[in-house]
Task: structure prediction
Amino acid sequence: MSRRIRVLVADDERNLRELMVRELGRKGHEVDDVGDGEAALARLQEASYDVVVLDMKMPKREGIEVLRELQALAEPPQVIVMTGFQEVSTAVEAMKLGAYDYLTKPTKIEELDIVIRKAAEKGQLVRDNEALRAHAPGGEPASGILTKSAAMQAALRIIDRVAPTDSAVLILGDSGTGKELVARAIHELSHRAQRPFVPIHCGALPREVFESELFGHEKGAFTGAVGTKPGLVELADGGTLFLDEIGEMEPDSQVKVLRALETGTFFRVGGTRPRRVDVRLVAATNRDLAEAMKTGAFRQDLYFRINTIAVKLPPLRERREDIALLATHFVGTTAAYGVKRLSPRVLAALEAYDWPGNVRELLHAIERAVILSKGEEIQPEDLPPEVLGAPAAAASPGGSLEQMERQHIVATLRQVGGHRGKAAALLAIDPKTLYRKIIAYGIAHDEWA
Ligand SMILES: Nc1ncnc2c1ncn2[C@@H]1O[C@H](COP(=O)(O)OP(=O)(O)OP(=O)(O)O)[C@@H](O)[C@H]1O
Ligand SMILES: [Mg+2]
Result:
């Protein structure tokens, strides 16, 4: 959304309404206001809004009626419902009618602002998906996944078909190609959508910790196990367990996971009672598991168990038609930093680059560019030097210094396992400054993880 968010405030309390108009205007939104339900409906016929902040108790037409009627609009806005705290049941009804979220009065402007931005983002996503659907008859996109590429659409069709089943799914693809997004889509499209989606990274933790996270532990199972703790498999009961980077799992843990999959039961660490859970397994890896099997790093029996259905996500350089689509979308989702659009030269540069870090690298490049760009239009010099094809160090007169700082930050993050607070303390800078630098330098998670 490379423009301001259009907000309509409908509330009969004049002081409160004027306050909201003023403060939301200060947050950079384009705000109109009306004082009752009838006026709200009339205004919504005349002009289009991204978000409506709707008071539930209003004269002439109640908020709930307004909500019901506005669903009939060609492009219904996202609705944030405001209620008194005794009216939570109305809020629940409003959510059923399609409201995006509800807030109880009195509300902090900061909170309202965040919800407005999220609601607008959701609206944008819905519109993008609708546009896409219009372009690609036959292939309905799975939730939140944007693509125009035939290869990706083929992958999404597999996802659509396999999602409603309980079959295990293995998602293959290079770093940043959207594996986790796809895993979530499979969950969202399944009958388990109302139950938890529980991700665990199989390589980030030492084996003992990983197993006690996954399967839980009994009191006294090991030093430090002062209490009983249920495992993530238990939290995922009825839902989906996402084993991320399954190729990194230690062989001992692989045995336990396989046994759990085959018997449908597992033991907590230090436990003697078998426990039964109902979970659907989705796994992902960027490793070549066939190769890992040859060297014995990955168990063949586990491989066959999880590989019932495999979905391969192509790298971004093999679907360049997605670059402009994704870049434009990310400019919209980063709109919190200001209103921006991409210049034609920027689009050309983005489309020419190979994106070794795939969609994640593109996302970081856009976030960085949005922050760095001065005008409304993002220019080539706002892009990371590697995207422009320039050697990174020669990018600017201060290039090498910046590079040193970047390396220093990455090394520090690695040292503290990615803990931003600790890294900021070690670097003796404010955590917010660190956060800005991480974005400005386009430091990706996998550089320090
Ligand atoms: N087709 C897409 N449409 C919209 N957003 C996408 C798409 N593909 C990826 N993304 C976004 O790009 C980022 C990286 O995606 P994701 O985390 O799913 O990748 P991954 O394959 O799991 O990466 P890694 O191997 O590094 O863990 C996320 O922010 C995700 O929302
Ligand atoms: Mg991932």
